[in-house]
Amino acid sequence: MTNWLPELSDNKGPLYVRLADAIERDISSGALPAGSKLPPHRNLAFDIGVTVGTVSRAYGVVRERGLVAGEVGRGTYIKSPAADRNFTSNNLSRYNGLLPKAHPELTLMNSTSAPEVGQAKMIARIFTEIAEEDPKAISDYLRHIPDSWREAGRRWVARKNWSPSLANILPTQGSHAALVSVLNTVTGTGDRIAFEELTYPATVRASALMGRRSIKIATTDQGLDPEAFEHVCAQQHPKIAVIVSTFNNPTLTTIPLENRLKIVESARRHNVLILDDDTYGVLDDDAPPLFSELAPERTFHVTSLSKSVAAGLRSGFVVCPTGYATRVMNAHRLITGSAPRAIMEISTRLILSGEADQIMAKVALDNAARVEKVRAALAGFEFRSDPRCPFVWLRLPEPWLPSTFCKAARAQNVVVEEADEFKVGQTEYAVPFVRIGITGELEADRLDDGLNVLKQLLQQPALAYDTIE
C-alpha cells in the first residue's frame, strides 16, 4: 500500500513499538485491509524520517503478533484479522489456520476424464452381450484387427470434409499408447522431438525414457507460434513435432487455420513429421481443419474416448500417413501387447451403435454445467475456460507462485496441478498458472467444496507466504 503513512504523534514508548502499534491500529480500523502490502522498509523509513532498522524491528513485532506474513525479497502482507477467521482449527501450515479443509478425503481437481453420465450401465450391458455372443473375446488374445474396429475409428475421427482410409487406422490402448508407439516408430535414440513449451507431460517423459531429446517451441495465446516453429525446424531439425492443436492441455488454446497452414508449410519445407494429439479436440465440433486434412502425408492423428466417453475403457485410435500403419501397429503391439480384445469391442459397439455420441453429448452438458460453477466461484480472477472442456487454466494473482498455491491447496485436501508439471524442461521464466480439473470422479458437491477453498486462497494473498517452512 504505497500511499499509507502511520500516525505516530499520539503514541509513547520506543519508536519501533510505536510504529508497530500504529500498524496494528490501522489494521483494526481497516486502513490496512487484509491482503494489502506494507511499504518496503527503506521507503517507509524515508517517508517518516526513521532508520531502516526501526522499520525492520516494527515489522518484526507485528509479525510476532500474527498480523502480517512475508518473506525477504517479496514484501510483507496483512493477514486477515482475527474477527474474520470464522474457520476451523485445521492448520494450513505451522503458522496459522485460516481455511477449512474441503473434505476429509482428497478432492482431486487434477482429473479431466469424462464424468459418469450413465455410460457405466451401457458398458456393463455391452460386456454381457459380448460374453454371451463371443466368449473368445473374453478368453483369447487378439489375433488380428477386425474391420469393424477400423470402421469405428473412422467414424470417431471423421470430420465434415474428411474421413481417413481404413487401412491407415489403428485401434490403440488409449491416446498415450498411440503417441508413444508413433514416436518409437519414426524416431531413434538421440533424435530430436519438438513439443509446445507447455504440453501433456507424459509424452515428454516417455520420449526421454526412450532416449530422445526434447525441444520446446514457443507459444502464444493462439497456440504454437508458427515463426518459432519455423526457427526450430530450420535450426534444430527435429524428426517430428508433437502438437495439441485443439484445446491444448493445459493452456486451452486452439491453433487457428491461418497458423496451421503456416506450420504445415514449415513442416514440408524442413521434412518434419506432425503428431497431432487430438484427445480433447473431439469435444469441439467447430475446430479448424485437422493437420491430417491439411498435410495427410506427414501427420499422425491421435484421439481417444477418455475425455468424451469413458477413460476406464482405455481405448483410442491413431490415423497414420499412408505406409506407416503396419510399423506403428508392430510398435504398439510390442509396447502394450496389443489392444485388449473385450475392451476394444465394447468401444467399437458404442461407436457404431451411436451410443458413444449420446454419451459425449451428455458429457458436454455436464462439462458446461461444471464450467459455469467455476466461472461463478472464481469471478474476478483471470482464467481461461471453455464450456466444452473439462479443465480451467487459472492465472494466479500476486504474490502467489504455482508451487506455494498447490501446497496451500493440498494442505486443505484439494489437489490441483501447477504449471511446472507441463513444462518441457527448465525455463528461465515463471508461468504463474495452475490447471484445475473439474471432472473425473469429482461429484458436484465436492467440486463446490474445492472451488470454495481455491477461492478463499486467491482472496487472501497473505497466505502465499504462510506455506514457507
From TrEMBL:
<keyword id="KW-0663">Pyridoxal phosphate</keyword>
<dbReference type="InterPro" id="IPR015424">
    <property type="entry name" value="PyrdxlP-dep_Trfase"/>
</dbReference>
<dbReference type="GO" id="GO:0003700">
    <property type="term" value="F:DNA-binding transcription factor activity"/>
</dbReference>
<dbReference type="InterPro" id="IPR036388">
    <property type="entry name" value="WH-like_DNA-bd_sf"/>
</dbReference>
<dbReference type="GO" id="GO:0003677">
    <property type="term" value="F:DNA binding"/>
</dbReference>
<dbReference type="Pfam" id="PF00155">
    <property type="entry name" value="Aminotran_1_2"/>
</dbReference>
<dbReference type="InterPro" id="IPR004839">
    <property type="entry name" value="Aminotransferase_I/II_large"/>
</dbReference>
<dbReference type="GO" id="GO:0030170">
    <property type="term" value="F:pyridoxal phosphate binding"/>
</dbReference>
<dbReference type="Pfam" id="PF00392">
    <property type="entry name" value="GntR"/>
</dbReference>
<dbReference type="InterPro" id="IPR000524">
    <property type="entry name" value="Tscrpt_reg_HTH_GntR"/>
</dbReference>
<comment type="similarity">
    <text>In the C-terminal section; belongs to the class-I pyridoxal-phosphate-dependent aminotransferase family.</text>
</comment>
<protein>
    <recommendedName>
        <fullName>HTH gntR-type domain-containing protein</fullName>
    </recommendedName>
</protein>
<feature type="domain" description="HTH gntR-type">
    <location>
        <begin position="13"/>
        <end position="81"/>
    </location>
</feature>
<keyword id="KW-0804">Transcription</keyword>
<dbReference type="InterPro" id="IPR015421">
    <property type="entry name" value="PyrdxlP-dep_Trfase_major"/>
</dbReference>
<keyword id="KW-0238">DNA-binding</keyword>
<dbReference type="InterPro" id="IPR051446">
    <property type="entry name" value="HTH_trans_reg/aminotransferase"/>
</dbReference>
<dbReference type="InterPro" id="IPR015422">
    <property type="entry name" value="PyrdxlP-dep_Trfase_small"/>
</dbReference>
<dbReference type="InterPro" id="IPR036390">
    <property type="entry name" value="WH_DNA-bd_sf"/>
</dbReference>
<keyword id="KW-0805">Transcription regulation</keyword>
